[in-house]
Amino acid sequence: MVELLTGQKAISSIRSQDQGKSLATYFLQSIEENSLLDILDAVVLKEGRKEEIMAIAQLARRCLYLNGKRRPTMKEVAAELEAIQGSSVQDNLGDTEYHSIVDVSEVYDFASISGSICFDNIKTSSSSDADPLFSAKS
């Protein structure tokens, strides 16, 4: 996520000594110093809304916690990104009701899977015993 936000590689010998070679360290340092906007990719700044960018940056920061128990799960990350995207679409559509439909057969080329998944009122769960995305049916 940090690489996408900044357009930079995870490890770089180009960054100065005080910035560190690790993009993660540089990213976290920029957040602490309130200079995050200075390191973001120009396309991200041009096409993204500041609120969305900051929400994604805070999510990326949480993903970089050293303590794995404090990091969000991939399911939580996906749900938060969907919520950020959904709020953006809601803002663009005004008061119009919006439902995001994903046609699984268009996304995945599985002969045995077909249908649609509807994402309404996404809720996150911190439980590691979450339901699988697709249940196995015979």
Q: What does this molecule look like?
A:
- With 138 residues, the chain is mostly helical.
- The protein has a domain at 2-71.
- The protein has seven helices and two strands, in the order ααααααβαβ.
- It has a two-stranded antiparallel sheet.
- α5 (50-63) runs antiparallel to α6.
- It is globular, with a radius of gyration of 18 Å.
- Residues 95-135 have low confidence and may be disordered.
Question: Can you give keywords for this protein?
Answer:
single chain; 138 residues; mainly alpha; two-stranded antiparallel sheet; 2 strands; 46% helix; globular
- List segments where confidence is low: pLDDT < 50 over at least 5 consecutive residues: 95-135
The whole-number mean of residue pLDDT values reads: 74
What would the principal axes of the Cα set say about the shape?
A: globular
Counted beta strands: 2
In percent, how helical is the residue content?
Answer: 40-55%
Distance from first to last alpha carbon? 37 Å
Rg, Å, rounded: 18 Å
> How do the strands of the widest beta sheet line up side by side?
1-2
Order of helices and strands: HHHHHHEHE
Tally of contiguous helical segments: 7
Structural class: mainly alpha
The major beta sheet can be summarized as: 2 strands, antiparallel
- Bin the strand percentage: 5-15%
